[in-house]
Design goal:
Blueprint lengths: L1 H9 L9 H11 L9 H32 L9 H19 L3 H23 L7 H7 L1
Length: 140
């Protein structure tokens, strides 16, 4: 989207609500263009692809972590092959469901979701949240 590439290059105010994380990350990647204006769009598009990949990877890790906590006991040493297939399959399906969205929202939505998904992954992997979801889901 040329509007967001221009906003990242000039750091101008975007249309409401705007996306400040996208613009600041885009500005960081625009610095790699080395002053060559013809490479600005390629730098911003590279940033979008990298942040989208990071978002999807964090989502995959989060889903597989949660499903593993639901399927595998805490004291288990090994995971059976069918359960491993279920764990990876659920992560793969969740990541694909997040990936296949409208193309217009993909350019902005996925990179903007990277900080959010990383915060979710940190919360899920922290020690205090181990009691959080598993006990409430299993007890129902």
């Amino acid at each position: 989207c040329p509007e967001f590439i221009l906003q990242a290059f000039k750091l101008e105010v975007g249309h409401p609500p705007g996306n400040p994380i996208f613009m600041l990350a885009g500005r960081f990647f625009v610095n790699f263009a080395g002053g060559d204006v013809s490479k600005v769009a390629a730098c911003v598009n590279t940033m979008s692809a990298l942040l989208s990949a990071a978002t999807i990877l964090l989502l995959f890790w989060t889903i597989t972590h949660l499903v593993r906590r639901l399927l595998v006991k805490d004291d288990a040493v090994a995971v059976s092959l069918p359960r491993m297939a279920v764990i990876f399959g659920s992560g793969f399906c969740g990541a694909l469901a997040y990936t296949w969205r409208r193309p217009a929202s993909m350019k902005i939505g996925l990179p903007g979701g990277c900080p959010t998904s990383s915060l979710k992954a940190c919360k899920i992997n922290s020690g205090q949240s181990q009691k959080l979801a598993v006990g409430s889901i299993v007890s129902r």
